[in-house]
From TrEMBL:
InterPro entries: KIAA1958, ZMYM2-like_C
Keyword tags: Isopeptide bond, Phosphoprotein, Ubl conjugation
UniProt-recorded name of the protein: ZMYM2-like/QRICH1 C-terminal domain-containing protein
Organism expressing this protein natively: Sinanodonta woodiana (Chinese pond mussel)
Pfam families referenced in this protein's UniProt entry, alphabetically: DUF3504 (PF12012)
Residue ranges of domain ZMYM2-like/QRICH1 C-terminal in the record: 142-283
Record flagged with keyword Phosphoprotein: yes
Length: 290
């Protein structure tokens, strides 16, 4: 783990800058520097070498909101709303001290995505965390594929199948985790023997490429083959939504033609938290009723 002093010095954030927060208490001063360090490390992981103050505000909004959505504690748990709000307050203090942004990230127009995420997160915790899908009966899954509630027969069954893969194999069991997924986070890879598998490369589910969650292809069962399901999903997405940072789960088109392969089944927008929560709730119900 990097020491705060050595990290900030290496990235142009020296301790003297942090000491200029004269109005802060010692505890707040320490937390501000630690949060700045954490954000800069995240930027480096994303291939962003610029310091925060050198990044355009609209781009910085994207980075901060992505961090708030994907960030996890060392034990894998999500940060509470209060912790995220406190983290954003540290970034505000830093940007203000650097004379980059004198407004409020929470209330300002320049950080709409960040503000929207925090508001939704606060509402989420005020309602209580939803139940996650528990142990999964393989016979129930088989029945859902047989009745085409899972599979590649329609946009709804396709989203259901992908959601179940995320829940059962990638251990992404809440709407927030599904909402945070980007197209780059789930990929088709091959092992040393040439066997294909679907891998979850989401930052919240792995420490490195070798420890990623995976589910192998099942060529002998093509209707349930996770790799085939993923490829089919890619073919039904709009081309512009195949970019690495595109949302993984997309809104279903209204009454798409299932026979015309030229018409995308999905729209140019990611599914919202409530929609994904509904998908998981319906999956939970179908699995328990079977």
């Amino acid at each position: 783990m990097y020491e705060v002093s050595s990290f900030v010095a290496a990235h142009g954030i020296n301790p003297e800058d942090c000491s200029q927060y004269k109005e802060e208490s010692s505890k707040t001063h320490t937390k501000t520097c630690a949060d700045i360090k954490l954000m800069q490390m995240y930027l480096l992981q994303k291939g962003e070498a610029r310091a925060m103050e050198d990044i355009p505000l609209n781009v910085l909004d994207e980075y901060i909101s992505a961090f708030l959505c994907a960030g996890r504690k060392k034990n894998g748990e999500e940060y509470s709303w209060a912790s995220l709000r406190s983290f954003v307050a540290s970034l505000e203090r830093y940007l203000r001290q650097r004379n980059v942004y004198t407004g409020s990230i929470i209330k300002g127009r320049d950080f709409r995505k960040c503000r929207s995420y925090l508001e939704a997160k606060k509402l989420y915790y005020s309602r209580g965390k939803p139940r996650i899908i528990g142990s999964i009966d393989e016979r129930a899954v088989e029945h859902l594929y047989d009745t085409e509630k899972l599979g590649m027969g329609s946009p709804v069954s396709l989203i259901n199948a992908l959601s179940l893969i995320c829940v059962q194999w990638f251990r992404l069991k809440t709407a927030w985790e599904l909402h945070a997924l980007q197209w780059r986070d789930i990929q088709i890879l091959s092992d040393e023997e040439g066997r294909e598998f679907l891998a979850c490369l989401s930052p919240s589910r792995r420490k490195n490429a070798d420890s990623c969650e995976r589910v192998y292809a099942t060529p002998n069962r093509p209707e349930r083959n996770p790799v085939a399901i993923y490829r089919f999903y890619a073919s039904r997405r709009p081309r512009s939504m195949l970019k690495p940072n595109s949302p993984f789960f997309l809104i279903i088109n209204v009454q798409p033609s299932c026979s015309d392969s030229s018409i995308p089944w999905f729209r140019l927008h990611g599914m919202g938290i409530n929609s994904l929560r509904g998908v998981l709730a319906e999956l939970r119900k179908q699995l328990s009723d079977t």
